[in-house]
Amino acid sequence: MTDNTIPKSIQPLTKDDFESDQMVKWCPGCGDHAILKSVEKVFPALGYKKENYVVISGIGCSSRFPYYMNTYGIHGIHGRAAAIASGVKLHNPDLSVWMVTGDGDSMAIGGNHFIHLIRRNIDINVLLFNNQIYGLTKGQYSPTTPKGQVTKTSPHGTIEHPFNPGELVMGARGTFFARGVDMNPKLMVNIMTEAAKHDGTSIVEILQNCVIYNDKTHQLITSKETRDDNQVIIEHGKPMIFGKNREKGLRLNSQNRIEVVKIGENGITEEDLMVHDMYDKDPSIHLKLANLMPPEFPAVMGVIRSVSSDTYDDLLEEQMKHEQEHSSIKTMDDLLNSGDTWEM
Q1: 124 burial class (0-12, 13-18, 19+ CB within 10 angstroms)?
Q2: Which CATH number characterizes residue 52's domain?
Q3: SS in 3 state form for 292-311?
Q4: Is residue 103 part of a domain?
Q5: What residues make up the domain containing 62?
Q6: pTM of the predicted model, to two decimals?
Q7: 52 lies in a domain?
Q8: Which of 111, 204, 268, 314 is the most buried (most CB within 10 A)?
Q9: Cis bond before residue 239 (omega within 30° of 0)
Q10: What is the average pLDDT value for the chain, to the nearest integer?
Q11: CA nearest to 75, candidates 34, 111, 22
């Protein structure tokens, strides 16, 4: 069931229509502010009726989001946003459901719900804020904290291998994965718009900065001095080019491995570079792209994977419709008298 079924607004809406009257209580300089402003631009552009948007969250700094959007919303409990969002969407398919979560909320206590939401491919849009730390509870390491980092709960450095959200999504048979960064609102708006168009579970990882407990955690990717050489923004059908002077690119070598090359050296031209195909059913290249990270490789930004597949909500609707048309059980009385019965 595509989002074409969601009722459209007769009157054009603006971002002002989605701003709530609540004071935004994130720290000054927090990346969440930019994400909020991006969503306030995306919702009116999608054109749905205001009452058909629902924002659902778990626990964490990111999970204050429903208070700051003038829509229906639910502030749930830790790690359970996916379960709540699934129920909301399946009960009312005519809703545009947005789940806002953090790296700890979804990939630690909520990990089981997270992977099964992706596996089922329910038509829900997930915004995953990744600041590689627990911010609301004051700086404990999270499932995405780099190995060896010193935090409040790892004073000698973490000894855990961190999750890569993109890799986790691919492993759970995800149909849509994109990555953005809080420092690039224009890219976030484009990615979120594509996520909304996708029929199925869309996961948008947003590299977000926590100025208090993990400041500059994405510095190589975001700072003006280093970002050009440490991120590549990909677009479907276009070669993967990056660098301050757009002199670098990604190439698939003879061992089927991605390597960084310089255009003009050793006879390399744009024709030798990888051309992005976000619709490729085979996830192998998408997985490789999701795993690229500085300093050896640039982080890949943009829509990495967007493929069509059966959705849980479509198949459930088909099952219910079939049973309604063919089953002899039409009422509760029919059900109660459908098997072996006797009188006392």
Answers
A1: buried
A2: 3.40.50.970
A3: CCCCCCCEEEEEEEECCCCC
A4: yes
A5: 3-231
A6: 0.94
A7: yes
A8: 204
A9: no
A10: 95
A11: 22
